[in-house]
Specification:
CATH class of the largest domain: Alpha Beta
Shape: globular
Order of helices and strands: HHHEEEEHHHHHEE
Largest sheet: 4 strands, antiparallel
Strand content: 25-35%
Number of helices: 8
Strand order of the largest sheet: 1-2-3-4
CATH topology of the largest domain: Nuclear Transport Factor 2, Chain: A
Distance between the termini: 54 Å
Number of strands: 6
Radius of gyration: 21 Å
Structural class: alpha+beta
Number of domains: 2
CATH architecture of the largest domain: Roll
Length: about 180
């Protein structure tokens, strides 16, 4: 019996150590749908978003990479290129950032149309990881020198303020940017 308890404690501590060693993987695992359900969860989230915002339900998408991004304890993110048909704006295409939640929900957090990206390529820098920008720009039919066009800190701050995600306040006579809660 003592041996069984020791074996149980060793196995439990190994599982705990593995979870603590990589909390990001455990958070992705808690929110990422199983592989066979991933497509339907993504499609459902996309259809819901584009139906509400563009009166369209006929769409195709292509993931820009298969592995989700994970920052801190936020929900895992996937990035996709979407082609929407029958939208109120006509044919619509662009890049989306998707948030995966509780293995059964997919929420569009950002959508940038290809037209908007062509008009203002810097907008993509605020939404998509740098490693995906060449794919996004290529899908839009443009070439952008990423090193020369990376936004400054001030441009990043202004973008967040314009979107209503942050606000500028004064602390001891200095201008500071804080997230809006």
């Amino acid at each position: 019996m003592k041996n069984l308890v020791v074996v149980f404690l060793v196995i439990a501590s190994l599982h705990l150590t593995a979870a603590l060693a990589n909390p990001i993987n455990s958070h992705v695992g808690a929110n990422m749908p199983e592989h066979e359900k991933l497509h339907s969860v993504i499609k459902q989230g996309l259809v819901e978003y584009f139906k509400k915002n563009y009166s369209a339900t006929d769409l195709d998408y292509q993931l820009l990479r298969d592995i989700p991004s994970q920052v801190g304890v936020s929900y895992p993110k996937l990035y996709a290129w979407v082609e929407v048909k029958g939208a109120s704006a006509g044919k619509l295409s662009g890049a989306v950032r998707l948030s995966l939640r509780e293995k059964k929900y997919c929420v569009v957090t950002h959508f940038l149309s290809s037209q908007d990206i062509r008009k203002n390529p810097k907008s993509a820098f605020f939404v998509f990881p740098t490693g995906l920008l060449p794919k996004v720009f290529s899908k839009c039919g443009i070439t952008v020198d990423i090193a020369k066009n990376t936004p400054t800190e001030e441009e990043s701050d202004n973008y967040l303020i314009e979107r209503g995600e942050a606000q500028r306040i004064m602390i001891n006579g200095k201008s500071c940017i804080i997230p809006k809660l």
